[in-house]
């Protein structure tokens, strides 16, 4: 049975109903904006964390009854976590200075953490605490003050990703790719799970886990549409999968990414951007795709014209992929400790869920199409491991603040948590191999060793396929 069994319903509902729900709630909000208040300034954009901001307001839109019995307070709607809070202020309207129906005053808002919020004035009746009306909203975004080290982080991720693409261009082995493509079913399954299943899964998971936070949805989606990471080849070797297939799939997904990333962002991604009221950064996304083609071409050219350098570059590809992941995790933690404030249970589930679902879906597809166990393993690993460096690169270069900061937490979480299930798998494999070896020895010393009975136990690959 499909291991996702009850959850596929949520995924489908999330994908279908998510946008509809957002549209409806936007319409309902619009209808309730009955109280006209003009704020000065009319919005608080990019206020720094830790700042105190005074907002004055005026309104003519009060009835004599409301002035007699009304109590007004500042209501804050934070998106996701608590970005801002009002400095408590309650206005009893019949004690406020009024000029006919004209009333003006001011309140303070303190910015606690990066993110978005809206502030409204809410008018209640003093007698029964009923909400009489709610004002139009004051939009607030809170950002971090950008430090030099933030720029350094962004640029060093970009540089490392580019170097890895040069390395990768050097490491592509046309013969292996050609040979593997003779039986293209494995690579096709890998492509489908990488660029069809993963974007859809990340979109569905984002809608289910972060229905309120469009920034987190963007972070998930950008991570989901990223190509496979170089670490997939290392894990495939470690866990005993088909390395040639893994290399071929990584090659295909590296090239396909130039087309598939823009295709997904401009189609399904548009739903998130539209709901976030953000324009898709077309030019930025296009230039990132081009920006990755250049190092890849350099690598291919090196391989052709300077084979010695290319050989060296190809050799350091794998260690470099590990360095990139370590760098992202460590640098992100040191400079962007704010990321840990964003580590909610949803982020942990997202960080674990995306690679897990990738492994499961990749494995399932391989199983359904009756691939050999070593190929299933390679496909599963290839699908589950995303190139989080590219996701971070895209997010930080294409989004403004605070989106760039908020969204980065998702690929960082995925980068931190992807190795966990793989390492666990490795330990289980080792343990099984060890215990079957021990049993083997015991049985032999008992003189009842029957190799044919032990066959299924000692066959690692057979075991993996039966676990999928
Ligand atoms: C806002 O805060 C400032 C600084 O603490 C204070 O001087 C001012 O009176 C406050 N304004 C309101 C409306 O509370």
UniProtKB/TrEMBL annotation:
It is found in: Membrane. It is a multi-pass membrane protein. Keywords: Membrane, Symport, Transmembrane, Transmembrane helix, Transport. This is Ileal sodium/bile acid cotransporter. It comes from the Eukaryota. The chain crosses the membrane at residues 6-28, 152-168, 188-210, 282-302, 322-339, 345-369, 376-397, 409-428. Residues 445-468 are annotated as: Disordered. GO terms for molecular function: symporter activity. It comes from Gryllus longicercus. GO terms for cellular component: membrane. It holds the Pfam family SBF. Residues 458-468 have a biased composition (Polar residues). Belongs to the bile acid:sodium symporter (BASS) (TC 2.A.28) family.
